[in-house]
């Protein structure tokens, strides 16, 4: 080719990249979305500092965040009983109205009980069994999905940790706490009249989706679009990084 | 008929300030956002024309704004919807860059020119009446098209037509057609035209034989016509009832289609609704449903493949936020966020014995980040001199390559001076009858209007700090003040007021000192005697001597600074610079700039884009990328969505900035 230095895709890439470069989202919009995330997902210190540093108004109402933060922390740490009590203090209707969420919490509580039996000193499975029969079994009898979940969870007691099948060891993964905590947070937000998830979640999904769609409909876009997060920061992440596959299956 | 079909989307009124026509079902959509941005840009340009005579422009501007608030197409409170005046527009650049072109205007009326001679239009082109078919041109029917095609980037376009009067043997056709289709036949009969006919209720798709579709329609019936560009589905409604899919359009992504109607008999008359008034059919819900379908797809996207190695959605978001915070110099927030995420992750490992891949989100030690944050704070507080001082100290030479931001800072300084002048005026004039609610930073001292009447100076000081003016200060007061100023300036010059003494501090440096002294005591003294305050509200009262000095001094400073500004930049040939300079300097001409057409310039939030642009040029000068990953992600998404919506694809239903935008506009409306 006579123009060997120029890659054939250069013109398109230029147009697309140029438009990306020229498009400057408003900082006010971005800051508002970040504040929205800090508030909805419960990062009160960050929200307070951000309100000052970025001059975002109105300043966040930390009180309304506090209960959600405590509940999330309890779930993340595996203290499900505490979390359930706090949720009911806040608004008993949340779990009354959302049986699936209540069941998810109770099952997580069961898993946490089983987890303690798996650790060397304590091998007494009675508390876990009792909990399963009194708390979960009555609810599970009315719902096929609940029952499946319960059975799967009980299987944890039968197998030793080393020989667990992937779908069982998944239950012991702390990621499950995160997912349940996230569902609880959304439910509380809804009960407080905030019907939307944090907007930034939609942004990252829209980014992925729009690229997929554009490729599917054969739009002229570059083969690879970097976010700019790659490179300097990515090497630090190694194999231990949890990946989010399957996350989309339990959308609320 | 006084109409100009090329004017704008707002062809029904002469006012340029009216919001663009946005049918209800398009509110909050990408296209609506683009149309509004384009409208604001246009409005900002045309506002300059009315500005030759500031005082008259002031009243007409306010008037037309208030009338538009009753209009159906109004989407946000008027003042907030006009947020982008000159400065903002230069800054925000709207989503224009995403697209290669301007947003396509929406159909707003029937076209005067794209019309058979047997038709007559009335009511600004919304009504069409048949006056008899022309025999010379062998018209079989008479059709008309709208002034603009249905934009594919709507996703769904919908309009309604009411049959106002119909002849017994009449034949009415409602639908749409391409630009070249003959107007002497009914839409639907010709290639490239589709329509629902009233005499038989049939659907005609590009041929003279129809297919059974819906009920016949006649006088007073309201027929709706909709096109879903994502699916190609064409649907009609009859008196609010959805008739279902009529036909599916060929998959051409480029065809231009205009709403069109055709008539046959004299005196038959139709009236169209392109969104000027509420629709009979609940199209909003239908569009919402479509939007939800698309959003469910969006929300199902698995984002883990956006990065390699893959990150979970949470991790990705954490990283994006942490990087944005560090990048933009929100150091304290970045640290707090890293800490809170760390705690959250640590809790997860509790009792699980699983070591999680902990992300270190802690921002590195970065002296530049701290400096950038200081500079940003100074601008956000309105202390432009401080920011300029820092720039000189730490980033000397950056302005040499970035005159634009230097110019904006210098203008902003002038604006800040005007802001303080208006605050002093308010303080002097006392608190008006209906103080606006105030939530901005000025109340930070916690002093409110509860000062004791015995200390009117303090009261005024309190008002100065805590309560913004109400804009109804008597005109004479200003003139008066200007007169005083003439003498005062000479006096000041003799006294040799130190240049810069009053410059650019958020509260004004020396003034600040005065106020603080006074105010420190005012909290102790003044509770519960607010009623007497009113006695001062019609004038300067006892407070005046105190204020006159500072006011006149500041006024002199401001004028001097304005001259300096003009000298420095008036030779700049660029149009946008000239315009921004003119607008900025014109602020001084207004009796009450906050009620002037230029009031947007005064708003506190105008500091944000200046602060951010300054931060951006510093970053570039440091050899760092000027945008963070999060901004890049948004920009990429916007461009991708632009690609996906231009031809009527699903991207039309995704708007990254929708409801929150509304909420924010509301909040800002209160806060400023």
From TrEMBL, chain A:
Looking at the record, which segments are called Disordered?
1-23, 213-252
For bias type Polar residues, the affected ranges are 1-13
Q: Where is the CTLH domain?
A: 64-121
Stretches with biased composition (Acidic residues)? 230-252
A single Pfam family it belongs to is LisH
> Where does this protein have compositionally biased stretches of type Basic and acidic residues?
14-23, 213-229
The highest taxon in the source lineage is Eukaryota
UniProt cross-references to PANTHER family, sorted A to Z: RAN BINDING PROTEIN 9-RELATED
What is known about what this protein does?
A: Involved in the proteasome-dependent degradation of fructose-1,6-bisphosphatase.
**What is this protein's name?**
CTLH domain-containing protein
Organism name: Trichodelitschia bisporula
Organism phylogeny = Eukaryota, Fungi, Dikarya, Ascomycota, Pezizomycotina
TrEMBL record, chain B:
Protein known as: SPRY-domain-containing protein
Provide the taxonomic classification.
Eukaryota, Fungi, Dikarya, Ascomycota, Pezizomycotina
Ranges for the B30.2/SPRY domain? 88-279
Q: What does this protein do?
A: Involved in the proteasome-dependent degradation of fructose-1,6-bisphosphatase.
Domain of life assignment: Eukaryota
Q: Which InterPro entries match?
A: B30.2/SPRY, B30.2/SPRY_sf, ConA-like_dom_sf, CRA_dom, CTLH/CRA, CTLH_C, LisH, SPRY_dom
Q: Which residues form the CTLH domain?
A: 368-425
**Record field: compositional bias (Polar residues):** 1-14
**Which residues fall in a compositionally biased region of kind Low complexity?**
56-71, 440-460
Query: What PROSITE patterns would the database entry show?
Result: B302_SPRY, CTLH, LISH
Positions of region (Disordered): 1-84, 429-477, 526-546
